[in-house]
Amino acid sequence: MKRVFGVKKDKEPPPSINDASDRITKRGDTVEDKIKKLDAELARYREQLKKTRPGPAQEAIKARAMRVLKQKRMYEGQRDMLYNQTFNLDQVAFAAEGIKDAQQTMSALKSANKELKGMMKTVKIQDIDNLQDEMMDLMDVSNEIQETLGRSYSVPDDIDEEELMGELDALEADMGMETESDGVPAYLQPDKEPNLEEELNLPPAPTGHAPVPPGRAQDEDELGLPAVPHASLRG
Predict the structure, then answer these.
(1) Which of 82, 172, 192, 205 is deepest in the core (most CB within 10 A)?
(2) Are 89 and 21 in contact (CB under 8 A)?
(3) How far apart are CA 59 and CA 52, in angstroms?
(4) Which PANTHER family match (predicted)?
């Protein structure tokens, strides 16, 4: 059956905008190369015209130059047309990319909107306000507890502040008088060690040398100490 009716061929996918733009750009580059070759040929003819005298030879060179110039103008028109087509394709491609970006943006916004709606169902403004009020109440209670625990039990409540200020002024006046008289306040001066001998009226301590009777010299040994008397042995 396939031999009789044949097989249905698969359709080729249509060319994309980028493929078409690349193909047209290549054609434009080819035409641009042809124009450059014609420019080089015209420059050669121009030099020949400068060196050739007027006459049939010069007219022949002019005819060939006119033919090359016509080809150049034709190729320039084709090049401009191809470049315009490339520009149009670029504009279409830019618009298509913009639409794709818009579609992706819309998809992202829809997904985010759906997610936000689900999250807002679990969060209520009234619950937030109640939570804030409860936190403020707890902070007030905590401050009251700290103030209660920080009270001093030994300080009476009926202290006269004016009386305390008077005592403070008197203390400052005493400190000023001590500073003027001695140069250093009494409470900053070092303590003096008491002299126990003067307080108890004790006699002076012995020096370790026995008093020598008047008129008798005391013998001393080699070290300068009092000589010890030796007992004499009699037979």
Answers:
(1) 82
(2) yes
(3) 10
(4) CHARGED MULTIVESICULAR BODY PROTEIN, CHARGED MULTIVESICULAR BODY PROTEIN 5
What are the backbone angles phi and psi of residue 143, rounded to the nearest 5°?
-65, -40
Taking alpha carbons only, the member of 25, 64, 17 closest to residue 44 is 64
76, exposed or middle or buried, with CB in 10 Å at 0-12, 13-18, 19+?
middle
Q: Which ranges constitute the DSSP H helices of the chain?
A: 2-5, 17-51, 56-122, 125-149, 161-182, 196-200
Angle (CA) 105 109 111, round 5°: 120
- Write 95-100 long-range contacts (CB < 8 A, 24+): 96/17
What is the reported pTM?
Answer: 0.41
Q: Could you read off the pLDDT of 70-98 as tens digits, one per residue?
A: 989 999 999 999 989 999 988 998 998 99
In this structure, what are the phi and psi dihedrals at residue 209, rounded to the nearest 5 degrees?
-115, 130
Q: Of the given ranges (20-24, 163-167, 177-181), which has the lowest mean pLDDT? A: 177-181
Q: How many percent of the chain have pLDDT more than 70?
A: 66
| Count of CB atoms situated within 10 Å of the CB of 62 | 14
